[in-house]
Amino acid sequence: MVLHGAQADYWIVPARVNGEIALFVVAREAAGVKITDYRTIDGQRAATLEFDRTPARRLSGPGTRARRLSSTSRITARCCCVRKPSAHSTH
């Protein structure tokens, strides 16, 4: 479950690579992304994200470079959402 996951433009995804945790950025429109959007019991929005050989840009860890992510519960349960600021944003 990723709170507001379906509303994000990008996700920051931790994944284990060669025994180390690395961070990846995944774009919403990337190939192999499946989003299941739903409402939580308290009325918020949440989503289940699945990745099937999805291109991702590695942000951290040794040998930082683009990789492909496969769907696992560890990946989908620990994503965080990133939205582009809108032209109307006051922040």
Number of strands: 7
End-to-end Cα distance, whole Å, is 27 Å
What CATH first level would be assigned?
Mainly Beta
**What is the rounded Rg?**
14 Å
What structural class do helix, strand and pairing data support? Answer: mainly beta
* Sequence of secondary-structure elements: EEEEEEHE
Give an overview of the whole structure.
The chain is mainly beta and 91 residues long. The chain has a single domain, classed as Butyryl-CoA Dehydrogenase, subunit A, domain 2. The chain is built from one helix and seven strands, in the order ββββββαβ. Strands 1, 2, 3, 4, 5, 6 and 7 form a seven-stranded antiparallel sheet that branches. A hairpin with a 5-residue loop joins β4 and β5. The chain is elongated and about 40 Å long. It starts with a strand and ends in a 9-residue tail after the last strand. Residues 71-78 have low confidence and may be disordered.
Q: Which features would summarize this protein structure in a list?
A:
91 residues; mainly beta; seven-stranded antiparallel sheet; 1 helix; 7 strands; 5% helix
Task: Kindly summarize this structure in a few lines.
This protein has 91 residues and is mainly beta. It has one helix at 73-77, and strands spanning 2-3, 10-17, 20-27, 33-39, 45-58, 66-70, 80-82.
SSE layout and pairings?
Blueprint (H helix, E strand, L loop, with lengths): L1 E2 L6 E8 L2 E8 L5 E7 L5 E14 L7 E5 L2 H5 L2 E3 L9
Antiparallel strand pairs: 1-5, 2-3, 2-7, 3-5, 4-5, 5-6
